[in-house]
Structures are given as structure tokens and as C-alpha cells.
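pls design
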């Protein structure tokens, strides 16, 4: 029986690091929708204190490419993969919970 699977992550790479192995066990009739709440631009700043080299906009661009590549791999084993990325700030999701909740419901 086909399943609809929602993967919700705070930022790009959560889908792979959090549930990547499970996603690879899905079947050819399953549909996957991946939602990331931020673009990951501030991850280096928050975790490592790095604000340049690479700057946040480059971090976000690389993380988007990595998300696209991960979805291409996943598409090989399931019926469809869709993705949506919200653009909330890394580290500030707790400040936008009502808005984020509404966006998730619409996703």
C-alpha cells in the first residue's frame, strides 16, 4: 500500500542525518515530501563561530545543492520526492513557532 511520508527538518541535512537510512527503505510506490524550516545559512556561525569564509549566503547555497543531490538519490527508490524550504533563521525557530506551525500545516 503506497505511503505518504513527511520529513520535517530544522535545516538542510536533517533529512539525511536524521532519517536517511529509513528513507532508503521506502518502496517504489511511496511519496516523500521533505520540508526544511531554514536554509542553513547560519549553521557555521552558530556552531563554529564562523561568519565569513564561507559567508552565510555561500553556506546556504551549498546546503541547497546538497539537499537537491540527496533528493536525487532518494528519487531512485520511491514514486516521488518533493521538497519545500522555508526561510526562517537558523537558531531562531523557537521565536517563530506560530508562523512556522501554519507553514507546516500548509506544506
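designed seq:
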Amino acid at each position: 500500500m503506497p505511503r505518504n511520508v513527511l520529513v520535517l527538518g530544522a535545516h538542510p541535512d536533517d533529512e539525511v542525518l536524521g532519517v536517511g537510512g529509513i528513507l532508503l527503505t521506502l518502496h517504489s510506490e511511496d511519496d516523500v515530501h521533505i520540508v526544511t524550516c531554514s536554509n542553513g545559512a547560519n549553521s557555521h556561525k552558530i556552531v563554529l563561530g564562523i561568519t565569513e569564509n564561507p559567508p552565510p549566503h555561500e553556506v546556504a547555497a551549498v546546503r541547497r545543492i546538497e539537499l537537491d543531490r540527496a533528493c536525487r538519490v532518494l528519487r531512485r527508490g520511491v514514486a516521488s520526492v518533493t521538497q519545500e524550504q522555508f526561510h526562517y533563521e537558523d537558531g531562531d525557530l523557537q521565536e517563530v513557532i506560530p508562523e512556522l506551525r501554519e507553514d507546516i500545516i500548509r506544506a
